[in-house]
Write a structure and sequence with these properties.
The chain is an alpha+beta fold. The protein has six domains: 7-60, no CATH class; 69-140, OB fold (Dihydrolipoamide Acetyltransferase, E2P) (Beta Barrel); 147-213, OB fold (Dihydrolipoamide Acetyltransferase, E2P) (Beta Barrel), CATH 2.40.50; 246-472 and 548-583, no CATH class; 491-537, no CATH class; 630-736, Beta Barrel (OB fold (Dihydrolipoamide Acetyltransferase, E2P)). It is globular and about 75 Å long.
Length: 755
């Protein structure tokens, strides 16, 4: 039986661990699992209701304290030269406490008015209560105002800027010289210059004209600007990249005789991983395999403290769009010296892994080497070569390199099956563009064994890197994926139950339980919905210096090692391996170690920013593709329910559109958040996740990526169109409304009789 912590135990933990004060971390600290979490949740609610704890952004803290990560404004230095920071938000009594700024080597100059995101800790034995360290500078109240992006609409006295974000209705007014020559309908960048004007809109000044928002090149450009993704490199970064030289053997291990090759998407812009396999000749390992994974040695070119390093850390990762890539590193490195092109010498970090016949990793060793790729293949090409169809790959590569790889893959599949990582099957959309950048088709990417082979090789190499660094007690950034919350599992269980499926309850959750649900759904019409609902129930993965395991992959030790060209986390892991093995002076710096937690936070946020930008771009391309099909009918499935409407994923393109609640007719629909349903008050009609629907495309807005739909059929049954008022809005009705109407009619009839 699990002993619940006392109320004081919880309060003490929150006070001593402000950066770990969420429900999951509190449960972890006191060893609370399964159903025992319900009692913990009740205790936390009671402490919150009594005012002993406050909850914000899923973290608890004591009233009158600052959160561990907060936004502050820098004050002017005091007479001792110390720089204090004032929190931008404070809900305690009296004035907000000041935070003493602790600058680290490499931090930018901070001046009065700068807005900063800082990690704070309580000060001990000092006059001030808190001390803070910089995570990143996010703006200023002294001149460099945040950029706005929108479409300019001209008027007699200037104009206004309308937003491009889906669902946003905020606008800005532009007058006089602030127009800066912008034309009506142009995409513009602007800065806010004043508070609300007499017309109720804040004033702005246009700083850059970006051209036609409907032009093909503008689609990804809008996402880049809207999400603050840096798309050009400072001059000092370019200079450092241009000064890089091709690698020499030196003290590296010569791996050029190993038949490594790369397998990537046909449109790959960089190649940072190569693979090779062969049968193990050791008689003690019958049926075993030797697997090599070689990764571009980016650490040899991007050294700690350099301009390249500072810029790469700030970007966090490369961002990929259908028409372009915004790289983490300049093209001279990402597309050339750090890319493992065929038949050229390239610096690499490689791991040699010995596998048993069942795919279990027996041993591994890392090396810093020099390699030469035998070929650069596309997934489709490698798969065709194995399948014996038209491929264009030399037979000596097929027999000598690809077939041994597929043999090793067969073993890896056995190990995967035994481990039971989460086996989601979600189709990936592929947007095809012509030379002018216009969408020609939207399809779903084919998924071959070649994709799965590379994935398994990379996962195993990532595991080997994490295990090595854990064994050597070397600092690193883990790729962390924590188990889903009890609440999300209950929601998933409701979805499964509604579909007639079962998700096990009353035991410690493992990925095999979720896989059982996915297997029950396999081959069914609602399989995609069950997969999507399972994905939504998962927590978001992140980078951090503490090892909480990877739930989705069912792995205890996991770190990203295989993509340093496009992910800064992998570069940190490479540096840690260099330091742990004593391979050079370009390993982890003291600053890298001190900033490890902050770097994890920074690049996790960058990853989410890139994902949002990529998603927005796809939405805009889809809206553009469907714009000339407004009025057309599409089949689909309900993928989301909200108070304001129903989301539908359309079969043909995978695009998501919204059926607004107002378009469902005059009937009032009650939203039940627990069961994720809308229920008609009069008809009893239930609208739920997974239902098959037929919709009409009512509106497609390429600038925002928004799609509005009209619901025609649910599960094959026709819906009556909404009754409209003279203003074109649906008539709302309720039981009270109809009662009042009947009463009014009765009074009129009675009055007529009396007269």
């Amino acid at each position: 039986m699990i002993n619940q912590p006392s109320r004081q135990d919880i309060l003490d933990f929150v006070a001593e661990n402000p950066d770990k004060a969420n429900k999951r971390e509190i449960a972890r600290a006191f060893g609370i699992k399964g159903a025992a979490r319900i009692e913990l949740k009740a205790t936390l609610r009671a402490l919150e209701a009594e005012g002993l704890l406050q909850k914000k952004a899923r973290r608890f803290r004591q009233p009158g304290t600052l959160p561990p990560v907060t936004v502050v404004e820098a004050l002017a230095p005091d007479d001792q030269g110390d720089l204090f920071l004032r929190p931008m938000e404070w809900d305690g009594e009296g004035d907000a406490p000041l935070v003493l700024f602790h600058a680290k080597r490499g931090d930018p100059a901070i001046g009065k008015g700068d807005r900063l995101l800082v990690r704070i800790a309580k000060a001990t034995g000092q006059d001030h209560l808190y001390e803070g360290r910089l995570i990143r500078r996010i703006g200023s109240t002294r001149g460099d105002k945040p950029k706005l992006l929108g479409v300019f609409r001209k008027s007699a006295e200037g104009g206004r800027i309308v937003p491009i974000e889906k669902g946003s209705d905020k606008e800005w007014r532009v007058i006089g010289h602030g127009v800066n020559g912008a034309l009506d309908g142009e995409l513009v960048e602007a800065v806010q210059t004043g508070p609300r004007s007499r017309m109720g809109l804040p004033l702005a000044e246009i700083s850059a004209r970006l051209g036609d928002p409907m032009a093909a090149k503008s689609v990804s450009l809008m996402a880049i600007h809207a999400h603050g993704i840096a798309d050009d490199f400072p001059e000092d970064v370019i200079r450092e990249a241009e000064a890089a030289k091709p690698p020499v053997l030196g003290k590296r291990e010569d791996l050029r005789d190993i038949a490594l090759l790369t397998i990537d998407p046909a449109d790959a812009r960089d190649r940072d991983d190569a693979v090779c396999a062969m049968a193990d000749t050791d008689p003690n390992n019958p049926g075993g395999h030797i697997l090599w994974v070689a990764i571009a040695d980016v650490a040899a070119y991007v050294v700690p403290g350099s301009a390249l390093d500072t810029e790469a850390r700030q970007r966090g990762n490369s961002t990929y769009f259908p028409d372009r890539v915004v790289p983490m590193l300049p093209d001279g490195l990402s597309g050339d010296l750090c890319s493992l092109h065929e038949n050229v010498d390239r610096a690499c970090m490689a791991v040699r892994m010995v596998l048993a016949a069942d795919g279990t990793k027996i041993s591994h060793r890392f090396t810093r080497g020099l390699m030469r790729s035998r070929a650069s293949l596309a997934y489709e090409q490698a798969q065709a070569a194995i399948d014996g169809t038209d491929h264009g790959v030399p037979e000596e590569l097929v027999d000598g390199v690809l077939r041994p790889l597929w043999d090793a893959f067969g073993a890896l599949k056995q190990a995967r099956e035994a481990r039971q990582p989460l086996a989601l099957e979600l189709p990936e959309r592929r947007i095809e563009l012509d030379e002018a950048g216009q969408v020609t088709s939207v399809a779903f990417r084919d998924r071959f064994d070649a994709h799965k082979l590379i994935e398994e090789c990379m996962v195993l190499a990532n595991v080997a890197a994490a295990e090595t660094l854990v064994a050597k007690a070397s600092p690193l950034l883990f790729r962390v994926h924590e188990e889903p919350s009890v609440e999300k599992m209950e929601s998933l269980r409701e979805v499964a139950k509604a579909a007639g499926l079962n998700l096990a309850k009353g035991q410690v959750l493992q990925t095999r339980h979720l896989n059982s649900l996915l297997q029950q759904a396999a081959g069914r019409d609602d399989a995609e919905l069950i997969n999507l609902s399972t994905l939504r129930a998962m927590t978001q993965a992140y980078y951090g210096p503490q090892n909480f395991g990877h739930f989705g992959l069912a792995l205890r030790n996991y770190a990203h090692f295989t993509s340093p060209i496009r992910r800064y986390a992998d570069l940190i892991v490479h540096r840690s391996l260099i330091s742990a093995h004593g391979w050079g002076k370009d390993g982890l710096s003291l600053r890298d170690e001190e900033q490890m937690a902050d770097t994890g936070t920074l690049i996790s946020e960058a990853e989410r920013r890139s994902m949002a930008a990529e998603r927005d771009t796809v939405d805009r391309y889809l809206a553009s593709y469907l714009a000339d099909r407004v009025g057309g009918e599409f089949s689909g499935r309900i993928s989301g329910i909200a108070r304001f409407g129903v989301f539908v994923k359309m079969d043909e393109t995978g695009a998501d559109g919204l059926v607004p609640i107002r378009s469902l007719g005059s009937e009032y629909f009650h939203h039940d958040a627990e069961t994720n349903t809308l229920t008609g008050r009069d008809s009893g009609t239930v609208i739920a996740l997974g239902q098959r629907v037929l919709v009409r495309l009512a509106e497609a807005t390429p600038i925002t990526g928004g799609l509005l739909l009209e619901l025609l059929e649910i599960d094959g049954k026709a819906r009556k169109p909404a009754r409209r008022t003279h203003r074109g809005r649906p008539v709302k009705s309720s039981m009270k409304g109809r009662t009042r109407a009947k009463t009014a009619k009765a009074k009129i009839k009675s009055a007529r009789k009396r007269s």
